[in-house]
Amino acid sequence: MDHAAEAMRTDLMTITRYVLNEQSRYPESRGDFTILLSNIVLGCKFVCSAVNMAGLAKLIGLAGETNVQGEEQKKLDVLSNEVFVKALISSGRTCILVSEEDEEATFVDPSLRGKYCVVFDPLDGSSNIDCGVSIGTIFGIYMVKDKDNATLDDVLQPGKNMLAAGYCMYGSSCTLVLSTGSGVNGFTLDPSLGEFILTHPDIKIPKKGKIYSVNEGNAKNWDGPTTEYVEKCKFPQDGSSPKSLRYVGSMVADVHRTLLYGGIFLYPGDKKSPNGKLRVLYEVFPMSFLMEQAGGQSFTGKQRALDLVPTKIHERSPIFLGSYDDVEDVKALYAAEESNA
Ligand code: FDP
User: Fold this and answer.
1) Is the CB of 124 inside a 6 Å radius of any atom of ligand 1?
2) How far is the C-alpha of 129 from the C-alpha of 117, rounded, in Å?
3) Whether residue 137 has its Cβ less than 6 Å from ligand 1
4) Is the minimum distance from the CB of 221 to ligand 1 under 6 angstroms?
5) Nearest-CA residue for atom 8 of ligand 1
6) 142 with 306: CB under 8 angstroms?
7) Which compartments is it annotated to reside in (predicted)?
8) Which residues pair with 177 in a beta bridge?
9) CB of 55 sitting under 6 A from ligand 1
């Protein structure tokens, strides 16, 4: 028997153990972040189990229908939102919540307030639920300035001020990818233990990739640099091989593949939607934070994505993120367009 290998296999690094280890590096820490994170993890486990049941939705009425008992059931995205909002508030560690599902920000009752603001999309890519394609939860965490005088400005901050960001992908396995500002780690849910186990330590995105990921159905309305970039992916002029196209249409799945295999994910602005589709606070920022922490880049077409200062909680922005060199190519095309203007 290989005792060293056996010891490794039985020495499980759960996400809670990982965060507690991180916390021990800060003697002043009182465990608030660990408590907040364990409530986020609880929300992810709940949504994972609900998503796994989605195929049975017609039978048991998970998808906004009436179930066999004649009870009205909530749609999965609405249900996921309720679970996250309740888990976050009950943690006693949050102050302001911004959810994709809620038009207004939630200011937590002063008696339950803590120091963190959480921005999140409880079930991103929800148009994919009914066909069983991977979907996910995305979140970012800020620190409030003064919890007794919290204002929207506490969340309308550039992404570079986030303390942590992550996503949980509900796919062939349930994977939670997290950065607390010192690298990126991936944890996979072991359903038999009900625990997220560290399976992808210190994720680094390849410096250059072989895949581009975009909704090409919008090409007719793209601007010059985006059109030129995608053309270069298909017909490279420098002797390199063309890139492969992969597009799930579910941001968490497309970004997860980009992070692991390298390449670029783009949702550009176009003539119909100059700001693109994706939301700054709970899609663009957390994914950009993870990309940079993994050694990649994220660009809006004008600037580093994490430098953006949102003025509205549901603001959108064009986004190009992924391998360092691939994003560098996009930046060069936008710079060339600007210098020709
Ligand atoms: P969805 O509309 O299914 O909720 O922002 C949401 C999102 O999915 C992303 O997850 C995904 O990357 C994008 O929209 C897909 O948009 P297109 O259908 O326009 O390609």
Assistant:
1) yes
2) 28
3) no
4) no
5) 125
6) no
7) Cytoplasm
8) 167, 186
9) no
SS3 of residue 66 by DSSP: strand
Q: What average pLDDT score do residues 100-120 get?
A: 97
By CB neighbour count within 10 A (0-12 exposed, 13-18 middle, 19+ buried), where does 194 fall? Answer: exposed
Q: What is the pLDDT of residues 321-332, one digit of tens each?
A: 999 999 999 999
Largest CA distance in the chain: 69
Asked whether the CA dihedral 12, 18, 24, 30 is positive or negative, the reply is: negative
**Rounded to 5°, angle at Cα 125 from 174 and 168:** 25
Element (H, E) at 115: none
Separation CA 309–CA 303 (nearest Å) = 11
Compute, in angstroms, the gap from residue 254 CA to the centroid of ligand 1: 10
For the four alpha carbons of 291, 144, 176 and 86, in that order, the dihedral sign comes to: negative
DSSP 63: S
pLDDT in tens, 179-238: 999 999 999 999 999 999 999 999 999 999 999 999 999 999 999 999 999 999 999 999
Q: How far is the CA of 163 from the centre of ligand 1 (A)?
A: 26
Alpha carbon 46 to its chain centroid, in Å, reads 17
Amino acid identity for residue 119 in this structure: V
Q: Could you report the per-residue pLDDT of 165-195, keeping only the tens digit for each? A: 999 999 999 999 999 999 999 999 999 999 9
The residue nearest atom 3 of ligand 1, judged by CA position, is: 125
